[in-house]
Amino acid sequence: MEKRFDTKITVILRDDLQAWQTLNVTAFLTSGIAAANPEIIGEPYEDGDGNTYYSMFRQPVVVLQGDSDAVKTAHERCLRRGLRTAVYTSDMFTTGNDDDNRAVVRAVDAEKLDLVGIAVHGPRNAVDKIAKGCHMHP
């Protein structure tokens, strides 16, 4: 039986990204959700030989996509609802470290961010409303 969680973790990606960009952006965005919400991380994994592995999210991560307008709209909905998000902008593809990533985001007003992806964790209903208009990533 599948467990139903009260919260939802959703990544929304722009639909024109290359495969490597999709994977890279998803990894970065989900790390932001994990860092901000340690309570949603489960226990470490262990195999039958006793080798231990990193802990991961206790709940599924839904990866959606949409065009640039859909990602921008989802971001605006997050801001209006007061839900904190992780963001990834096109400018971040040109940087090589966290300091420069933060600097390129800080240099642009929210409505002008060239978003390629966002991630949000919040109440299931709110996250579903934020992601309206986006569809499952293939």
Sequence-ordered SSE layout with sheet pairings:
Elements: E1 7-14, H1 19-36, E2 45-46, E3 52-53, E4 61-66, H2 68-81, E5 85-89, H3 98-106, E6 115-123, H4 124-130, E7 135-136
Parallel strand pairs: 1-4
Antiparallel strand pairs: 1-6, 2-3, 4-7, 5-6
Helix pairs in contact: 2-4
Pfam families: DUF2000
Protein name: DUF2000 domain-containing protein
CATH topology: Bit1
Strand order of the largest sheet: 5-6-1-4-7
**CATH architectural arrangement:** 3-Layer(aba) Sandwich
What percent of residues adopt helix (DSSP H or I)? Answer: 25-40%
The description of the largest β-sheet is: 5 strands, mixed
What's the tally of helices? Answer: 4
Distance between the termini: 25 Å
Helix and strand string, N-terminal first? EHEEEHEHEHE
CATH superfamily: Bit1
Count of beta strands: 7
**Tell me, what is the CATH class?**
Alpha Beta
Whole-number total of structural domains:
1
Return residue spans where pLDDT drops below 50 for at least 5 consecutive residues.
none
Based on CA inertia axes, which overall geometry fits? globular
What portion of the residues fall into strands of 2 or more residues? Answer: 15-25%
What's the gyration radius in Å? 16 Å
Strand-pairing-aware structural class: alpha+beta
The chain-level mean pLDDT equals 96
